[in-house]
Amino acid sequence: MMVKAVCDAIEHLIDPGSYLLPGYLAQDEIRQNIPEEQPLAPWPLNEKLTRFMDRFRATATMVSTTGRWMLLPVVDHAFYQTTSSWRLEPDSLKFSLKPKLPYSKEMCRRQGRLLRYILRQTYSRDMVLQVLGFQRHVKQRCISLEVELVDLIVVAMQTVFEESDDNTGDTADQTHLMWQHISSQVIFIALYQFGNFSQMVELIYSKLCSLKQDGDICRGREHLMWCLLQFISGSIQKNSFADFAPVDKLIHLLYPENEPLPLPDMSKPSSIWHFSAMCILMHINRKAQSLAQTDSSQGGGFNLEANQQWVIPVALQKQNQFLLKCLQNKNASSQDYQTALLCNACNTTTDYNPSFTLLVENVYGESGSAIQLPGSNCVAFNKTAPLKMQLLDSLTAHTKMSMLHSITSKITKLAQTKSICALSPALVETYSRLMVYTEIESLGIKGLVTQVFPKICESRSWGILNTLLEIINYRMHHIQPAFRIQLLNTLHNQTSMQLPMHNQLLFGVESTALRLIMGLDNFDIKPQLVRSFSDQKQIVSQKSEELNRVLVLTLARSIHITGSESISGSWCIDILEAIMAATPHRWPQQTLKCFPHSVQEYFQRQTVGCVNKKLLKSNIEKEYVKWNALLIASTQDSSSGLDETDALAYFSLPTTPPYFICLLWKVFFEGKTPSPLAYKVLDGVNANQLSDQVRTFSDFLVYEFSVGDGSSEHVKICANVLRDMVWKYNIVFIDRLILCLALRSSETSDVQVANFIIQYLLIKPDDFRNRVRSFVQEVESTDHWNQSDWYSKHMAFHQKYPEMYYFEGLLKHCSGGDQVNSTAENPSSNHQYLPSYFSNITLRFLPVLDIVIHRCLESTTTKSLETCLDVIGMLYKFHDQPITYLFNTLHYYEYNLRERPSLKKKLVSTIVGAVTEKKPADWALSHDFMKYVKYSGKDPLPFTPRDWRFNEFPNASAYALHVTCVEILALPLPGDQVGQALIDVVLKMHPVVSRDDIFSWMNSVALILTALPEIFWKPLHRRLFSTITCDTLKNSVPSDSSYPYHILSYSKQQLAYTDLPCTRLLALSHIVWYHMSIGQLSLVSQFLKEEMRPLIETELQLLYVFHLIGPYFHRFRAERTRCLMDVASVLYDMLLNVSNCTKEICFVDEISDFLYHVKYMHIGTALNEKVEEVVGKLQPTLKKRLQFITQASSATAGRQHQQLIYQSSNPPT
Fold it and tell me: 586 Cβ partners below 8 Å, 6+ apart?
């Protein structure tokens, strides 16, 4: 009787008709108190409770993303905008699903596939931590991470191809690079104690033992040993002896041969892999001997774990003998890999230093011998050939760290002693190559940014500072966003202080800052700039208007491409206000039209006036009348009463208007010869003042070219004078001048004149064209990491086209110039040129050319741009991010280029053609697209393998996504038509799309669509708009119907060929929205509110919308609360409309369960007034079910409400 009474009471509580408690709270209470492995209830209640709990399968489906367990991200910086979607529980590797609902088995299972995929991608360490919710500085062991990493290692071993003497090509290279990455992951996880190294080795041993009967477990053993050696060599001194016992056991398992293995060819890099196991044993035995000696000196008796554990396997006996012989010889040859082997086998801090010393001395150079660098009075130590990448790849992480430590010590020592002899080219190139190794990041890029760079600035060693700037500009391929901002802050702080009279240094600092700003990733800009503002870092230049303008352009590009126009908010305005406070400026209308609305509106509210060029001209004329007697060589008139001393004093004052270069223009325009005073004044002008002079000169030039008598003769004279000032007199530098011309003009007419001047400087004279053509021809390969003769090519170019930073041309051609300096044959001898290892005018001009092309795309005429691409487009061969630049350009200017298909084609073919000039046809774009741009070649593989350490992209998936988007954006078709075609690939089940792989196809289509402009994915919303009114959803529901999973759930139907078009569209929409940034997803709420809401009249339509938007409430709550409230409000409006239009609602329980979920998990009491208003107008049954929606009517409901609100208010960080 008691059991029956309890059962009756529970049945009454969960009976929907009793209206005692929301079913949603009841099911959660049941799941909280009954473990999953136990039955729901004793047998008298089991059937009813099971039926009751199964009702919430509909709610679970509503809040689940279709196929979520099959989706994969692209591992790049954009991922960090959607981390909550990919978060896994670190202990179980399951999705964080709250509250407990009857989710599908796939949703509840372990997501090891996702974590292994991320671990396999290069440059994925930060993403691994984000997915698991870890932070670097918090030590937290994750056994699941260990398991997945071990699985990745074992699979990698099984996929290693059998080696042969001929296997030295791409296959061997890619295999080594894969293991290089795995080694980096092992070091990172073990070093930061996210995993236990000893336990990982034990797990590898166990897995290999289990595979022993199924196949050859020795395949890939050399690579595994190489991977383990990387960590052991650096940790053997710090860790306990017992930590490495499993390694010895593993070695004996993998080397069972009864005969010694033959010695490898020491002239090949692969020889190092074969010696890895022997190197490990030498480290371990040396550790054991050290412990034994220590223990013996203390009176103990250390036991070497005797038996057979530390005995060297028979297979490695020859290697052991070879190593011992080499160590006794101590005369290692640097021509093969014997030196690297000895460094790997012996710690660099032991007595076996000769090998390591030989290695580093090969790049230091000899103190008594020097070589010439570009510029006068500039010499460096005499080593020019850097260490090869194959050799550096053959060194252990510990050896590379020791080498980095030695090099940085050498650099800081030279900086402190103010050595007049610069670093050797070999050392600089080797140092830059060591930066690519992520496993030694603390001494690599992080050490450079946080330690070396600030120390060099503090010691005011300008030569080494210029060297570091060139490394950052021309050799760093992957600079993390935080380091990029920190470098920018350091550079701005340096320019805020008074730099020395070094034009070369100031140009280097500004050029580096320009590249750092333009290189900011679209998804990095907001978090990094907001963090920088809060940390009070100086990201806005206080002196350079051009840098701040480029920052505005970069900001606008980021807002546009990330789709964050609707959420730009105050952070964007704060940055713009800081920029305008430092350097007030205005933009031309054609540029403003391309800005996002928030940026556009901000600048339209500003009242900055444009430069009054007539007044500028008048002021310059007055100054010229005042000083021309002293500036013109043949003039003897001194009636003004001013002399040379007055002129030097006047023009050196900071308050003097920056007109001097304009005055020189007047001298040359009149055909006069300048006096020596002209050189003396310019030579005494501060570098920052010189930048102001160039800005004023660019404004003056625009006016001079646009006025006059209007004849072609006037323009010709102006052009010739300008050419001479750039190339003959070295008064202004072409990159600085063109940057000012491209950015400063604010009126449409001025923009046209500025574009004309730019076109003239780049195309008409042959000065710059010859330099571009010569450099492109001389440097055939851009793979600098594979070159050993860069120094000779660098010097040959500078000897052919020397760069003059100190107006040497003016001094040479002014009257009496030989009397200014005592060394007339070398007029620059008074200035100490800074060492230059990589830079030249063509490379420095590339970021300026990027900006020039963008300004041309904003205008209505394109002929000049096409001509420019024809003449100097080949320079893009040396661009550090050509595909990224194309993607950003085509994306940002998509509207401007819609009606210009030939220009898109020209732009892509020129840049890609330059990049792939000496590379395989499939290096950048697909073969089909290359045929479209009239490229002829054989059918290639999808993409040629490459070393991602020296690529603009972190891995193959990021690269494939960007090049695919470039191809799509360059098509001569409307964006919506292309987007519709992409959607149809999966919605119409293209023949190549297997149903088994449908989720992978949908994932790929979603990644592409969300990376493209809005016009490409808008067809998805239009398809939803038309589908919501289809007959399937507009039909009424029979009263006895079961829940329509066949319409609202795709996961099961697709394999059974029973899926409906609306169901397939629902799945694709889920996956596309899953990959969207929050800015893009915010437009979804607008779509529901403005377009979908008026159409919802039937119950199925309402349920379809619930299933459509349900999975994204958690993202709205975490990232965009306003959208969360908007969507919830719209759903209640739809519910009311359906209640009014439908005679009887059948799925009352499922609808009310979902609304209770939204309330308790997401919105709380925020919409109570709205909800009360709607609920009061609903059908009686639905009204009864929702009577608790605005208040808890029982103690149980109240307690559960508080518990769920607490869970929802504490989302994962």
Answer: 603, 606, 608, 609, 610, 746
